[in-house]
Amino acid sequence: MGGNTKKLIQKYNLKLTKSLGQNFLTDDNVVKKIVDVANVSDNDLVIEIGPGVGSMTTELAKRAKKVIAVEIDKRLIPALQENLCEFSNVDIVNKDIMDVNINELYDKGQYGSIKVVANLPYYITTPIIMKLLEEENDINLMVFMVQKEVAQRMTAAPGKKDYGALSVAVQYYTKPEKAFDVPPHCFVPQPEVDSTVVKLNVNEAPPVQLINRDFFFKVVKAAFGQRRKTLVNALHNFKVLEKTKEEIKEILNQLGIDENARGETLSISQFAQLSNLLFKSS
User: Fold this and answer.
1) pLDDT digits (tens, 9 = 90+) for 206-249
2) Which of 78, 94, 252, 276 is deepest in the core (most CB within 10 A)?
3) Average pLDDT estimate for 35-56
4) How does residue 2 score in pLDDT terms, banded at 50, 70 and 90?
5) pLDDT tens, 263-276?
6) Distance between start and end Cα atoms, the chain
7) CA 69, chain centre distance (Å)
């Protein structure tokens, strides 16, 4: 499979596009490990984002009931079709995933689980993940190859230097866990950063109760917008609130949160309590 990827790149004279963040996996063992992490079974629908020339798609197709491969680069489609010609359970969609409505890709009720597996382009990792999390869909599990630093942010606990708005968002929607690291030599061309495979188990219900989800995320964003500022100052600068520092301190005191605390020390449940109180009093 690894050798096949290189052969297809040469056969079709594919010049990989830096602007699309194209780094193709060429290590068979890593491909199999990713599919293992996703625990793909013969009742699953797997949506693969950015299949490239299909090194992982072939492994997914061997195990899944159905694979839908969404590839933005039309130059890769002939190589992808050649690599997948023996599989009747693969659909290739030549679109930008950011323009795709996941719910329109398949018929509901035909699959045990809906899973997303992807070696994501690093320049657009966060927008793709947030799109998948925020839209109403039936995805149960996501397994992504991401930049190591992004994986650390997604899985970080309160108080850690990597903990931020992305940590809160990902942990609101899913239970994330790091699976394994992947060194640069497993790709063509080699990226300049280390990579990590992360597994996101989508929550059936949110871990906290919110009066207004949009407002919650605005509060979180404001709290992390100026990391060096205390929560009081960060929220005071948050124009939606229109609260004095004294009013903000009073709300923090009600919740037992130190008025000198910074956003990165708050857990998701504390952010939920804070946003609910601020929303009720706004």
Assistant:
1) 999 999 999 999 999 999 987 788 999 998 888 777 888 999 99
2) 252
3) 95
4) very low
5) 999 999 999 999 99
6) 58
7) 17
- For Cα atoms 246, 251, 253, give the angle at the middle one, nearest 5 degrees: 90
Q: What SS3 state is found at 279?
A: helix
- Rounded to whole angstroms, the Cα distance separating 178 from 144 reads 10
Question: Please, which pLDDT band fits residue 20 given cuts at 50, 70 and 90?
Answer: very low
**Which of 55, 52, 54 is CA-nearest to residue 73?**
52
Phi, psi (rounded to 5 degrees) for 82: -65, -45
Instruction: Say which residue the tokens 């050649």 belong to.
Output: 82
Which residues make beta-bridge pairs with 144? 118, 198
For each of the domains in the chain, give its residue range(s) and CATH number, in order of start: 2-202 (3.40.50.150), 213-280 (1.10.8.100)
